[in-house]
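Reagents: none. Just compute today. Thioredoxin domain-containing protein.
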Amino acid sequence: MFSRQFARLSTRSTLSFQRFITFDAASQPRLRIGSTVPNFKAPSTAGEIDFHKFIGDSWVVLFSHPADFTPVCTTELGAFAKLKPEFDARNVKLIGLSAEGVDKHNSWIKDIEEVALDNKPFTYPIIGDESREVSYLFDMVDEEGFKNLNGGIVQTIRSVFVIDPAKKIRLTLTYPASCGRNSAEVLRVIDSLQTADKKGVVTPIDWTVGQDVIIPPSVSNEAAKEKFGDFKEVKPYLRFTKV
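Predicted 3D structure written out:
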């Protein structure tokens, strides 16, 4: 069914990829938390990407940008690059996207290395999405941006997707053009999601690793005592413990 939305297009490179016939809101896939992330093939600064193969058995953060050589996006890509060792330690792969070509990305990377990395190498891929097909597939735009996908100015290809090894979407964020993202918050969210998956807990507001977590209301006091040991009951539905 989904493949019917594509048509084969001759390319200017040796890479073969497919293209949407139209950007139609009625036929656009609906992506929600818990959805299986769509697969796609696209060129990148690390060669052709088959997205599901790229995910493999890792977590992935996919984050997008409307254009190269833009001020806010340059700071964002640099900030994520600085934090890459932290993401690596959590089995998280980073992958960017910008709605321009790979050759231009490679030139832009030199600026990012100079501005944000003290000329150290930039080491994660950036997808080339000149046709805006992936941007459409993931609904990375606001209402005005959607109207311009076929060729106008699109300012809001500025989304973040956190995807788990089962290829399920666990978090989505879309930012306006004027607002830079918070890379530390993305890392914090991954810590929360991974802790929740491993320990069967939920995390309170502003939670960071080492702080108390919350026991879900579905767990009885008896089961909580057996599983977690000591816990603090603030309300019958609000119980804190350590993991």
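The helical segments are 51-55, 71-82, 84-89, 102-116, 133-137, 143-147, 183-199, 221-228.
Action item: order primers for follow-up constructs.
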